[in-house]
Design goal:
The protein is mainly alpha-helical and 380 residues long. The chain folds into five domains: 15-125, no CATH class; 130-178, Arc Repressor Mutant, subunit A (Orthogonal Bundle); 184-230; 234-290; 311-379, Winged helix-like DNA-binding domain superfamily/Winged helix DNA-binding domain (Arc Repressor Mutant, subunit A). Helices cover 64% and strands 1% of the residues. It has 22 helices and two strands. It has a two-stranded antiparallel ribbon with strand order 1-2.
């Protein structure tokens, strides 16, 4: 019974956008040409007339004919001749009688196109008549009874997407209130995850953590961002800066004063904080300027301790270089490997001592080899 054409027309009416499962492009092309019902389609004399409609090609025409055959179980042009003359029935010729002489009579398609431009037919804006209202309301009633688009589509013989479009059309014209299930779920999500709550989550969690917490997909997350017009990068950057500033305050509370870069380099976690400050602010000066931090002078006891430390390091370095010179006087030459083994110095530090002795013109190397020998200048 559901596949009976009479049953379909009784429920859905005569409109081609309801009876047939046609694309929006094909429907608009037919509407522009004045074909809005099955009765109008039956008045088309032949296949060539459909080909002449702007926006319809071979595939579109074949699709229209196949839909007609699927619904009514017969061919549209089975009992018609292709030699019928062009018919202007339905057009107001009184409006265009003075302009027909200006239309070049090259083909029927050109005449039809020119007539449509003159009359300015726009069937998409035609009034929503009472019969159409009743058909859409009947469709909504079946949707309320069945509860799913797919169920209504199977009963009437339309596609699921077409049923949704018709329900959206009824909602647009104010016949009833219809919200699709995805839109309804998204609306419920916006009530749970408001803009302020989403910003709060962005400041403290990653995207994956937010999606897992609220059981949403990445698509819905980005849709929420677009809806609320949120620039997540700005909020994340501000959250990072606030985080590192709080860590800086913890260091300040431990020391009792604003730390210097020398003090920040003493502990591993403080060095990491210093690196993060340089990454997010570019320099320690920019960080201090943003939070109006005035760098304090190093406490006297701390500065005195550092001075004593540097003095002691200088004395140790000078004593080591004296020992190297004594070794050279005894053995005549020395290499960097021998300095590392005999004086228990790391290889990186060896080059520092060697370069300083070369700059002071105490030693020299006649060859440019990797493990070259060094000699005293006075023995040259």
């Amino acid at each position: 019974m559901d596949n009976n054409p009479l049953f379909r027309t009784e429920i859905l009416g005569d409109d081609i956008d309801i009876i047939f499962n046609l694309s929006g492009r094909v429907i608009n092309a037919l509407f522009r040409h004045g074909i809005s019902t099955v009765s109008d389609l039956k008045k088309v004399p032949d296949r060539e007339t459909l080909y002449s409609i702007r926006g319809l090609g071979t595939k579109s025409v074949d699709y229209i004919l196949s839909e007609y055959k699927r619904v009514f179980h017969n061919n549209l042009f089975s009992d018609k001749s292709e030699d019928n003359q062009f018919n202007l029935e339905g057009y107001n010729l009184s409006k265009i009688s003075n302009t027909l002489s200006l239309v070049p009579l090259k083909s029927e398609s050109i005449i039809k196109e020119q007539i449509n431009k003159i009359v300015k037919i726009d069937h998409r804006k035609r009034p929503f008549d009472e019969a159409q209202k009743q058909r859409i309301l009947e469709l909504k009633k079946q949707y309320d009874e069945i509860g799913s688009l797919q169920g209504v589509a199977r009963k009437i013989g339309l596609s699921k997407e077409r049923v949704r479009q018709l329900l959206e059309k009824g909602n647009k014209f104010g016949l009833f209130s219809y919200v699709s299930i995805p839109k309804l779920k998204f609306k419920q999500l916006t009530e749970i995850l408001t803009k302020d709550e989403l910003i709060k989550q962005i400041n403290s969690k990653t995207i994956i953590e937010i999606c897992n917490k609220y059981n949403i997909t990445l698509e819905k997350y980005f849709k929420l961002k677009k809806l609320y017009k949120i620039d997540a990068q700005v909020y994340r950057h501000n959250a990072k800066q606030e985080k590192y500033y709080n860590q800086y305050l913890e260091v300040f509370n431990q020391l009792g004063h604003h730390p210097t870069t020398t003090e920040l380099s003493k502990k591993k976690e403080w060095r990491n904080l210093w690196h993060c400050i340089l990454t997010n602010w570019g320099s320690m000066e920019n960080f201090r300027f943003q939070y109006q931090i005035t760098p304090q002078k190093m406490p006297r006891e701390l500065s005195t301790g550092l001075a004593d430390y540097f003095i002691s390091r200088k004395i140790i370095r000078e004593e080591l270089m004296e020992r190297i010179i004594i070794y050279l006087k005894q053995h005549g030459s020395i290499s960097s490997v021998e300095i590392t083994k005999n004086f228990n110095i790391k290889r990186g530090s060896v080059h520092v001592y060697i370069n300083e002795l070369i700059e002071k013109e105490v030693i020299y190397s006649p060859k440019g080899l990797r493990n070259r020998k060094f000699y005293l200048v006075e023995d040259r």
